[in-house]
Specification:
Oligomer: single chain
Radius of gyration: 20 Å
Order of helices and strands: HHHHHHHHHHHH
Number of helices: 12
Number of strands: 0
Strand content: under 5%
Distance between the termini: 65 Å
Shape: globular
Structural class: mainly alpha
Amino acid sequence: MELVEAIILAVLAASTPLLIAATGELVAERSGVLNLGVEGMMIVGAACGFAGAWLTGSILIGALFGIVAGTLMSLVFALMALGLAVNQVATGLALTILGVGLSGLIGAGFVGERITPAVPLAIPGLTNVPLIGRVLFGENGFVYFSIALIVAVWWFLYRTRAGLILRACGDNHVSAHALGYPVLRIRTLAVMFGGACAGLAGAYLPLAYTPFFIPGMTAGRGWIALALVVFSSWRPARLVIGAYLFGAVTILQLHAQGWGVGIPSQFMSALPYLATVIVLVLLSRARTGGSTAPAALGTVFVPDR
């Protein structure tokens, strides 16, 4: 029972940054914007989040630093891809390269430093319940926030007029513009939300997952978050399944190495990414009704003057 509980807790911890980052990217893509700079925004969020927490001693302030850093990075993308109508794919890739270099510059003075990580919730009488106690009532605030975030995004997209307008901009920006909706402003706000989520997801890594900062600590999680949006068919409920599935594969391959399974460690380390590629291929072949992506995803929009 203790081993099962430990594995579940590890899966939740590994899945949380993926879920937060992918949720923000889902909103951005629903508006019609393809931002491939998630990895860059995450790593800058990690560096700024750790710096904020180390300087102030507050995990909350560190998280806010990460959110602000991710949002500012997303504004760079919005300026180029939306304001200047530059190709979104090229801009996103450039943002990732910028983020990797910028995070190294920001975090250079903090490598080797440590902080006290986010404290898990403790409710007397509930947290100590076998198996489910620590899973449901013993997580840190980031885990609970990720669940609340995906529920709020689902409600916004499918139960509000603003969500309907955002989805309309992603499906047909010309018609949305003809109806009088500010497409570029809506997309900018969606990109900023995605950047804030990516920055928070990056800040989670040094603030809760590992209490220190090292260059490149996101380790490709931003790219996995992008793949999860496709895996989920741009639907919030499926995004939760995909995030926890990938987290489970990541943790199980670590346990398999600890159990002495006779498989090369390099292959086991690549297994989570291989599983993601296989799932995407299978989903692509299984779809019979065409692509479920927003029709205007990645398409440059220049309003009539």
